[in-house]
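The instructor's notes for this session suggest beginning with a concrete chain rather than abstract definitions. Hand out the sequence below and ask the class to guess, before any prediction is shown, which regions might be ordered.
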Amino acid sequence: MTAAMQQRHRTMAVDVGGVTVGGDAPVVVQSMTNTDTADVDATVRQVAALAHAGSELVRITVDRDEAAAAVPHIRDRLRKIGVAVPLVGDFHYIGHKLLADHPGCAEALGKYRINPGNVGFKDKKDKQFGAIIEMAMKHGKPVRIGANWGSLDQELLTTLMDENSRSTQPRDARAVTQEAMVQSALLSAARAEEMGLPRNRIILSAKVSAVQDLIAVYLELARRSDYALHLGLTEAGMGTKGIVASSAAMGVLLQQGIGDTVRVSLTPEPNGDRTREVQVAQELLQTMGLRTFVPLVAACPGCGRTTSTTFQELAGDIQSFIRTSMPEWKTRYPGVETLSVAVMGCIVNGPGESKHADIGISLPGTGEQPTAPVFVDGKKAATLRGPTLAADFKQMVIDYIERRFGAGAKAAE
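After discussion, reveal the predicted structure:
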């Protein structure tokens, strides 16, 4: 880990249903459902899937009475199946009313998320914001105050734009909007503290959809406060675009020690796998050296020396096998997430990369002898050949995990 990443921006530690966000805690991965929260069965299934994938907080939409009434049932059903992930209620417009009318919902949630840009308008804004803060204090819940580029407090933005136009050195509109985002979050947090909400129950976010805007806004938030910070692009996009944009923006901030919890807001394909956003968030944190979630599988990209697809298929098989097995392995093989595996495609870099991994294989490339040396802890341990080569290596990985991380290995220490 680099010196820059060791110097985390110091923030308040916030307890969210037993999960610590901020302080000295590791960066927390969270996600959000896209089910109708009123559909208890569908929401329970998706929350459970996200939690099993590694989401440590799961946000759900609470937008109407039926959704609010469903929340305690969702919480109870999840507990019955052994899923204890804290639920975060996402409130807009009428959150104050829903929390007051549904005390079971207010109690069941681990955190409330409110947007100062749409919690209320004009004379109602302070009153409705205050009502949510009072409910949070009554139930002992933390609050994420989440400003959003798409629903920014227009009254505040207009005031800052007017002030800027009268300045002798006016800034461009984008810079003023960034400042409005920062002020919206900080002024709302200050208001919550004035009402009595402790500082260690406040998390801030200021989500935008452009990479450079996100970086600029969070640099200012970190400079001007010590609140725990939630990172994420508000509309990252689909597929590789969403992954690249989220990784670029959050990677820059995380490298500077900014960010206590993250969400990768990927747009899934129709009926797509919602857990993809959890996997991407984990991979971002792991590749940066901030956390370790699953064993890493290194594989060469392939070239003209590797016209066989064997190494690609084996690398994919091993990676899929590891991810599928991790829920069980976490309890059966403590520490297995630190394992490194290499699946290389030819003799150019294959043997060397394989030696650097805990266990690695260098498969034959085009024109090479049909043999594949396997290296364990830096030493050649076997040479595999023939049609069962892939299955044999997979079994060697399983055997290695059992020897190194199994109960027998722990007893021998």
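Then share the key points. The CA atoms of residues 202 and 300 lie 44 Å apart. Residues 1-5 have pLDDT under 50 and may be disordered.
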